[in-house]
Amino acid sequence: MPANTARNNDVLLSLHGEIASLQERITLLEAEETLWKNLGQSCDFPPESNTPLPEEIHFKFENIFDLTAIQKIQDSFAEATNVASIITDPEGRPITKPSGFCSLCNDVIRKTKLGLKNCMRSDAAFGTLNPLEPIMRPCLSSGLLDGGTSIYVGKRHIANWIIGQRRTSSEPDQKIIAYAKAIGADEEAYRTAYDNVPIMPKEQFYKVCNALCLIANQLSTLAQQNYRQAQAIARRQQAEHALRESEERFRQLSDSTFEAIFIHHKGKILEANKAAITLFGFTREELIGRTINSLAAPEFREAIREYSEQGGNLWFQGEFQCKNTLSIICEVQERNITFQGRNVRVCAVRDITQRIQSEQEAKEKEQQLIQADKMVSLGVLVSGVAHEINNPNSFMTMNLPLINDVWQSITPILDDYYKENGDFLAGGLEYSSLREELPNLVSRMQDGASRIKGIVNNLKDYSRVEPSQLMWDVDINDMIRSSLPLLEKLISMHTNSFTTNLATNLPPVQGNRQRLSQVFINLLVNACEALIDKDDNVTVTSQYLEDLRTVEIVVVDTGSGIPEHLLSKITDPFFTTKRDSGGTGLGLSVSSAIVQEHSGTLQFMPHPDGGTIAQLHLPIADHGEKDVR
């Protein structure tokens, strides 16, 4: 096989390889285009959209193709077909480097100013509306045989591919040789270069032109696909950029609010703002992927799961738990949005715990004012009732001694009558029995009236408001003993086991006897009301704590007791566990205030066997003595 033939075959194989590579790329781009069309992306040619493409495209050949690859194809084509080849823009300006140019065109004609201008004008004239129909004609500059076709992107003419620079016969063309003088070229050099121009029959050159059209058509298809790809990428980039800007604006807005914001899909958290991280105490990584209802308190999780899976605008309240197990009451609002191309829901969570607590405290304060007004009215009522009871009772206390004196005076007369006439009836009773019983009846009536008077006086003292600065030496044991008669009925109703253990020779305390009695009565009433049955017991003790120089009063009951978490609240104003049974929540609060006025302490603690221990400590009266025993 001749060397030239082998070389030509190698060149053709290289050309075929480049074309095959080009075809594979076209196929790949077509597949991508199909994918984009399936995704709803349209690529119209020429584009009908007003959306601008990136500035670097401009429909220029060099911005659409890989010029290195194109140069290889052009060089291979020129070598395989033995023709000169170049690709220019529509105005004739070269885009690629010349391939196989003859010395006449490259070294002589194009070296002159006029010759170069004519060459570019000739190259620009190869534009055609049908890339599959080649143009074949003499060069407008050198007169050599040229051919060419156009490369399009859709309907946009972006380049010309020109081949040629071949003679069709061995006879010299005098017109062509005369052209040397016209353009100012060296005539001898011109003639020598012309003689070296290869000769190619028109029929063979036409076949080369047809091959060129097929390749150029593939380039046009590739250019169109490249353009479509660029347009699709540009639109996708614009959409992604707009989406990023939208999401960034959303993040900036959500991070600037004090409400916790979650974006979720069917309850699964996709995004959380800074306020959500701060409110619940979890990191962003810990929140992403977990469900919203997992943040709720156990009793609210099912309800919040159902809410989070619903659509439309929602508003609800629920209890949530933070990472540190702190429970908070939240107001939740939800609505549908589009985020990262998905239909999701945005959930705004606002902590309203403080507001709810404030509302509850306001209601409690209102009840406290009502109860305080009732207590004022009750104090007035007790004082009035005590006064009204004291008036009729005074008739008994004043007249019963007179009745007793009358009985003592008429008894001798009735005894004489009894001796002379025997027994007789008086008020339906035999005189012999009445003579023994009537003095006892009158005596008990006098005792009862005295007790009524004592109870009434105690009630009046209890309800009387005395200035707290009025302090005297108070015998604690005597105060306890004088207070117990007021509670005899209450004690007998609640227990069969009531005991006192009062120490002897207690030093006095300085205080207001009536107010200290109020504290003791309140402690004893609470102890009795805490008993579950009458077998439970109540014990009252007193003793002197020499080391502390205080008198201690202890009231112990074995009743229901006070829950430990409520021990710190029982002296709060209007706090009560007996509101349903009429409790006002003022007793222990007032008692605590009175004890503080007396510089004492009042403590409550659970009894080991059930029930409550109330300890009252009062400092002893200090009159300057160094020691009191």
Q: Care to describe what's here?
A:
A hairpin with a 6-residue loop joins strand 2 and strand 3 (145-153). It is built from 17 helices and 18 strands. It folds into four domains: 3-234, no CATH class; 257-351, PAS domain (Beta-Lactamase, 2-Layer Sandwich), CATH 3.30.450.20; 362-463; 472-619, Heat Shock Protein 90 (2-Layer Sandwich). Helix content is 50%, strand content 19%. The chain is an alpha+beta fold. It has helices at 3-38, 61-64, 67-81, 103-108, 113-124, 174-183, 187-195, 202-256, 274-280, 284-287, 301-309, 353-421, 431-463, 476-483, 488-494, 513-529, 587-597, and strands at residues 84-88, 135-138, 145-153, 156-166, 260-265, 268-272, 314-321, 327-339, 342-351, 425-426, 429-430, 472-474, 497-502, 509-511, 537-545, 550-557, 601-606, 612-619. The longest helix is centred in the middle third of the chain and has 69 residues, at 353-421. It has a five-stranded antiparallel sheet with strand order 6-5-9-8-7, with helices on both faces. It is rod-shaped and about 200 Å long.
